[in-house]
Amino acid sequence: MKKTLVSALTTALVVGAASTTFAAANPFSDVPADHWAYDAVSQLAADGVIEGYGDTTFRGNQNITRYEMAQMIAKAMAKTDVSAADKALIDKLAAEFSDELNNLGVRVSNLERNADKVKWNGKIEYTYTSTRHDSDDFDDKTNKDNLLFRLEPSAEVNDHWHVNARLDAATQMNKDAADDHEDNVKLKRVWAQGDYDNFQVKLGKMELYTNETGLVFDDEFSGAQVKFGNKLKTTLFAGRLDLDDQPLVSYANDVFDTSLHTDTANIQGINLDYGTGKFFAGAGYYHLNSDAFGALGKDSVIDGEKVGTTYNYGQKSDDDANIWSVTAGYQFDRSSKLWGAYAQNTEADNFDNSWQAQYNYKGAEAANKGTWGAYVAYRKLAGYTSIMPTTDGVGYNQKGWEVGTNYTLFKNVVATAKYFKGKDLAPVDGDRDASKLFGRVEFFF
User: Fold this and answer.
1) In this structure, are residues 129 and 437 in contact, taking their beta carbons and an 8 Å threshold?
2) Domains defined along the chain, listed by start
3) DSSP H or E segment with residue 95
4) How far apart are CA 246 and CA 19, in angstroms?
5) What is the pTM assigned to this prediction?
């Protein structure tokens, strides 16, 4: 297909020159000032979209090749100050002449194509929590207002591989002064992911969310993970788990008034997931090794007596944690689901088992205004088994009832509310009543 340069010019006007009238030096000897296309030709030449020929002619009545048209399109693509309508037309032209652009190896074409492969998602999240612990001689209440800004870029490498990241900026709104532990900007996750038929591999720092749905792990680890299978899916992972500032360490230091070792743990794990129709089930096994677990056994004696919060008192002095789990559930229909999970740490002699059961009804969908959901659950998050659990409702080393609901206020704006009522699992202080009110509003983009 061939076009004259003048007819092609009417398409090239997408750069915005057609509506501009101005006085400028004549760039081409064969385009008189009174020619109908003079203003457009002059503007396009000034913008670098067209160059004419070396003898200062434009040759507007001459047929051009697709190769020449591709050059014009490539230069138009390099412009950034174009309207949305003009940009859409440029994209259509680029699709029509994609082969010529690729054969040319035009740099701007490659950059534009790569830019389209980078996607940015994220959210702004406001969270309010009010926690309370009560006993005959102890009363503690803590309120927090947290604000989180999250970016999650994803870039395509090729047909199978992507690179992904998560960047969080967090602050506590109820504090006047910044706190190094609460006000921070962190690169939480960064990993490469390869997706193939019934096979996936991840490398880097990534999510650790095992199939008990927040009962044992809901955090990040650094290492490698592979997932494969169809109806029976197997997930294998190994790497390093940062225990610093985790509830396991914080709890032990509070109870024993000591400085617990916080060596990063080595972790290896496997998840098996089976689903067919409405029934689903899973199992997991995790091995961790860190000085922290050994220290729990050594530092768990108060006034020369075992206090009941030991990790492996009198059994062994190694630094291992071995946790196995099972989970199962049933999806009654599109609205209703009942599920539960159990986990056991075979190395601990206390706080050594966790479990949860939950019923879900519907659920808010961020893209659909007015959608909503609710749930009721009972959870026990024992401290030496639930190493890094979800603690929005029931907290670390607590047990009790939890209810919650969510609602999509507007498209991509979701509100969530949760309430927990139960007990602290703290033999040193006796069973204390505990409760938490949790509220969150998320703005997704």
Assistant:
1) yes
2) 3-115 (no CATH), 121-444 (2.40.160.10)
3) helix 84-96
4) 62
5) 0.71
